[in-house]
Write a structure and sequence with these properties.
The complex is a heterodimer of chains A (about 270) and B (about 400).
Chain A: H1 3-14, E1 18-24, H2 30-42, E2 48-51, H3 62-73, H4 78-91, E3 97-101, H5 103-109, H6 111-120, E4 125-128, H7 137-145, E5 149-154, H8 160-169, E6 174-177, H9 190-203, E7 208-211, H10 217-226, E8 229-232, H11 234-242, H12 247-266
Parallel strand pairs in A: 1-2, 1-8, 2-3, 3-4, 4-5, 5-6, 6-7, 7-8
Helix pairs in contact in A: 2-4, 2-12, 5-6, 6-7, 8-9, 10-12, 11-12
Chain B: E1 19-20, E2 23-24, H1 33-46, H2 50-64, E3 70-72, H3 74-80, E4 84-89, H4 99-112, E5 117-122, H5 126-138, E6 141-147, H6 148-153, H7 155-163, E7 167-171, H8 178-191, E8 196-198, H9 209-217, H10 219-232, E9 238-242, H11 247-253, E10 263-273, E11 278-280, H12 282-285, E12 287-291, E13 294-298, H13 323-331, E14 335-340, H14 341-355, H15 361-373, E15 382-387, H16 395-401
Helix pairs in contact in B: 2-4, 4-5, 4-9, 5-7, 9-11, 10-11, 14-15
The chains are: A alpha/beta (about 270), B alpha/beta (about 400).
Chain lengths: ~270, ~400
């Protein structure tokens, strides 16, 4: 059983939901990242999504775009992110780590070299925003052979047929992007999410994480009542951006936000 | 439209999923998939619909001014002393470039699909102007994304778009140029998918864009092929066109692909020279990767990050290229060469002074390569050069190079 499947089974048995924070690797500087990941786990994170910086993040809003730009000024690319994952694993052998980014860095490295490198770094999952299931067969096969889950996105306009496609190609969990738009935009419509999750659950047995629009303890609790996992990204990165002169302060604020979400989700 | 292709047409790319061999495809975020499926269905349906084709043909004739002439540049041919050079005069179209062939087509499609809002990306502003033009004519809301750097250096085109009623959004992210404008247009599309039609200006993007834009631009090659037969009594020996994203080149090449005797040359922008790294020549000096929804040759570093490009012509300043060109390169059906900024200027002045035609800087790359190619060919041979746009928009750039003030 993969570390991700294991984690969701464990949480289900305990009647809890997964808290899944996302930060961009190398933002605001490379040495910030791995200690931050450990602190997020200590604050209650169950799974980590680590963003691979990309020069052209087409599906991201301004907050995550700027995080990518800051990381790229330190030349943090896919190879550096893999070495961060490896470093994280030295101290933490249990928390699943998912790399999230765009396809081109993987294309340029080569699918097989990437799959091998991800395996060596003990990465648990890969979420590639611009790799729909129609184009994913080669990559999924190589990752699956190495016990790595490919995580797919679902959108509000994905129909039953597409959900079944994701179910067939994906493993670990499915990530439901709860609104049309880019990361960091708009607000959560609980009724819409609830309705959509019924359709999703009717077409997959995979756990479902929900992201886009999770900002605070209240929205985290709302989502936790509906889904198996709560993904929070832009709200955390906003803390980094608001404290570029004082990264320690950013760290404190991120930890405080995650703790408040954890408490609300478990209550 | 398909019934107009030459008899015995065998080339049939892309496949049903939009692949040109390993290139092309659909590499987009999930939110865009239903919109792309909807667009693909509309494209497949209407490009075979006689009513749609009739309306398109009427617009191309009465609004765009087609057919554009095929002009035998006799004086310039004599000066170069080799092959006879014929210019396909896309510069004479309404709005001054080939871009409008595609925007007229996509706007008709948008209307058929019931979309009320048009978005587009633009680099030099030619595609933005061509989009704002058709949006004004059809009474559709229009938003054009343009890199902040390009907004500053193409002020006149920004004003033209605004006059036409479009909202021009200056994009401040990334390198603030064409690729970033494309990113921002994609973000808009993801957000406003229900009422919005995205008119991509080149043969890039996810399927069906590369095939659809090609089909709308192929009117260039269909006309040129027939005109050449009528005027010279035979097919040309070579075709030359500049390649940024590659829409004017594929528009000229496509109807000739099965004519194996016709050589094809795509001319990329070498900027300061390919060896300097400051260029926009992914086919000559890039590598395959995935950007903006398709797999193709790109300018990317070892981490897969996109490298900033350079060219004197904003319209060629793009790190990718249409996937069909990647395929034509790999199969050897077309040759891809490159021309530096300085060489392009030589082409610019040559045509201006010998034929009285001021070409766009983009087209000047094709002209500069023709100056190398023509003298190696016999006087009874024929080259067709796609004169994709007129040079009025480039006066400011030229004057700056000459150290003059506007």
């Amino acid at each position: 059983m993969s570390r991700l499947a294991n984690k969701f089974a464990e949480l289900k048995a305990a009647g809890r939901k997964a808290l899944i924070p996302f930060i961009t690797a190398g933002d605001p500087y490379p040495e910030f990242t791995v200690p931050m990941l450990h602190e997020m786990v200590a604050a209650g994170a169950d799974i980590i999504e680590l963003g691979v910086p990309f020069s052209d993040p087409m599906a991201d809003g301004p907050v995550i775009q700027r995080a990518s730009e800051r990381a790229l000024t330190h030349r943090v690319g896919l190879r550096k992110v893999l070495s961060m994952a490896k470093e994280f694993r030295k101290k933490d052998q249990t928390t699943p780590l998912v790399l999230m980014g765009y396809l081109n860095p993987i294309e340029i490295m080569g699918y097989e070299d990437f799959a091998n490198a991800a395996q060596r770094a003990d990465v648990d999952g890969v979420l590639t925003v611009d790799l729909p299931p129609e184009e994913a067969a080669d990559c999924v096969t190589l990752l699956r052979e190495r016990g790595i889950d490919q995580i797919f996105l679902l959108a509000p306009n994905s129909d039953a047929e597409r959900i079944r496609k994701m179910d067939a190609f994906g493993s670990g969990y499915l990530y439901y992007v709860s609104l049309k738009g880019v990361t960091g935009a708009g607000h959560l419509n609980t009724a819409d999410v609830k309705q959509k999750l019924e359709l999703i659950r009717a077409n997959t047995h995979l756990p479902v994480g929900v992201g886009f629009g999770v900002k605070d303890a209240e929205t985290a609790k709302t989502v936790a009542n509906l889904a198996d996992g709560v993904v929070v990204g832009s709200a955390l990165i906003s803390k980094i951006e608001a404290n570029l002169e004082n990264p320690e302060q950013a760290k404190h604020e991120i930890i405080a936000l995650l703790k408040s979400m954890r408490t609300a989700m478990d209550s | 439209m398909t019934d107009k292709y030459p008899q015995g047409h065998k080339y049939d790319m892309p496949d049903a999923r939009g692949h040109f061999g390993p290139y092309g495809g659909i590499f987009v975020a999930e939110t865009l998939m239903p919109a792309i499926t909807e667009l693909n269905e509309a494209y497949q349906r209407y490009l075979k619909d006689p009513e749609f084709i009739a309306e398109l043909d009427t617009d191309l004739r009465d609004y765009v001014g087609r057919p554009s002439p095929l002009y035998h540049a006799q004086r310039w041919s004599n000066v170069l002393g080799g092959a006879q050079i014929y210019l396909k005069r896309e510069d004479l179209n309404h709005t001054g470039a080939h871009k409008v062939n595609n925007t007229v087509g996509q706007a008709l499609l948008a209307k058929r699909m019931g979309k009320t809002r048009i978005i587009a990306e633009t680099g030099a502003g030619q595609h933005g102007v061509a989009t704002a033009t058709v949006a004004a004519r059809m009474g559709l809301e229009c938003v054009v994304y343009m890199g902040a750097v390009d907004v500053a250096r193409q002020a006149q085109n920004v004003y033209r778009m605004q006059l036409l009623g479009a909202k021009v959004v200056a994009v401040e992210s990334g390198s603030k140029t064409l690729k970033d404008a494309l990113n921002e247009a994609m973000r808009d599309w993801v957000t406003n998918i229900d009422n919005t039609f995205y008119i991509i200006g080149t043969v890039a993007g996810p399927h069906p864009y590369p095939a659809m834009v090609r089909d709308f631009q192929a009117v260039i090659g269909r006309e040129a092929r027939q005109q050449c037969i009528n005027q010279a009594g035979r097919l040309p020996d070579a075709l030359v066109a500049c390649v940024g994203g590659g829409s004017n080149a594929i528009g000229l090449f496509y109807p000739f692909i099965d004519d194996q005797s016709v050589k094809m040359y795509g001319v990329e922008a070498a900027g300061d020279g390919v060896e300097t790294g400051r260029h926009s020549a992914p086919l000559c000096a890039g590598r395959p990767g995935v950007l903006h929804g398709n797999r193709t040759y790109l300018m990317a570093d070892d981490d897969g990050e996109i490298i900033e490009t350079h060219s004197i012509s904003a319209g060629l300043d793009y790190p990718g290229v249409g996937p069909e060109h990647a395929w034509l390169k790999d199969t050897g059906r077309a040759d891809y060469v490159n021309i530096t900024d300085d060489e392009a200027l030589t082409g610019f002045y040559a045509l201006t002074r010998t034929e009285g035609i001021i070409p766009a800087l983009e087209s000047s790359h094709a002209l500069a390569y023709t100056m190398k190619l023509a003298p190696t060919m016999r006087k009874d041979q024929i080259i067709i050069v796609n004169l994709s746009g007129r040079g009025d928009k480039d006066m400011h750039t030229i004057m700056q190079r000459e150290g003059k003030a506007l």
